Amino acid sequence: MYVRQDGPRDAPVLLLLHGSATSSRSWDALVPLLTTHHRVIRIDLPGHGRSAEPADGDYAIPELGRRIGTALDRLGIEHAVVAGHSSGGYAATALAEQRPDLVTALALINTGPHLAAFIPSGPTSFHPDQWPPTDEQLRQFASTGFRAGFQVPQELVDELRRMTFHAVTTAMQASTTYLSQQSLPDRLKTLGKPLQVIFGDQDGRWHPSSAADYRVVPGAKVDLLPGSGHTPILEDPPRTAALLLSFTGAHTVRAPRAT
């Protein structure tokens, strides 16, 4: 798996996990605002960006959690605040379920809490024989991921085109399966981890009002970002970073300095 690190190596670790059909590059605008306080680690999930598809074809969310945990172990990371955007929040939750010793706190950005919150967007499916689609088809596919009028970055369109049909569809189905087994708020209630939820109030994929469903998690901090859609990490980096830093400042563990 492709891993990128930015910021001081002795700063508290903040792990950023992207959503389906994108890559760690979706965090590019946000990272410079976070590295003054954190060692920021980004991972391209299997089959996305610069990471290979899993040899066994397993995109299940618990398996993603296991792979992410292994990657952090190899980096010598003992504690991290984990932030997930969209379905990256499911991988973040799975990691916390499996490795509560590793995850000190969770931040979820426009992560749908349950299937009832999903907003159907009409027919946008692709056939394997029509893959890869054109730029226009891909922008239409991604349109609900951003507020109206926001230009989808070309580098993200290019990365989506380079994904295989199997990776795109199987990763998305894995998120649906994970949510169908148990809602995210129900999973998080039992974890006892500090939780920050950030949600753009113009989200076209998940009903923004569903962000309130996370309030069943004791102590959860829920913030709506006015004017932002499903991807505030690109649409409004300054306000997104400010909310994240306010939260992480209270829940980070600094790595010991090397001697």
How would you describe this protein?
The protein is of the alpha/beta class. It has a single domain, classed as Alpha/Beta hydrolase fold, catalytic domain (Rossmann fold), CATH 3.40.50.1820. It has nine helices and seven strands; from the N terminus they run ββαβαβαβααααββαα. A seven-stranded mixed β-sheet has the order 1-3-2-4-5-6-7, sandwiched between helices. Helix 3 links the parallel strand 4 and strand 5. Helix 2 packs across helix 3. The longest helix has 17 residues. It is globular, with a radius of gyration of 17 Å. The relative contact order is 0.19. The mean pLDDT is 93.
Quick overview of this protein structure:
With 259 residues, the protein is of the alpha/beta class. It is 33% helix and 15% strand.
What is the gyration radius calculated from CA atoms? 17 Å
Instruction: Give the class-level CATH name.
Output: Alpha Beta
Number of domains: 1
Number of helices: 9
Fraction of residues in helix: 25-40%
Q: Indicate the mean pLDDT.
A: 93
Can you summarize the main beta sheet? Answer: 7 strands, mixed
Low-confidence stretches: none
Shape: globular
Provide the succession of SSEs.
EEHEHEHEHHHHEEHH
Please give the order of strands in the largest beta sheet.
1-3-2-4-5-6-7
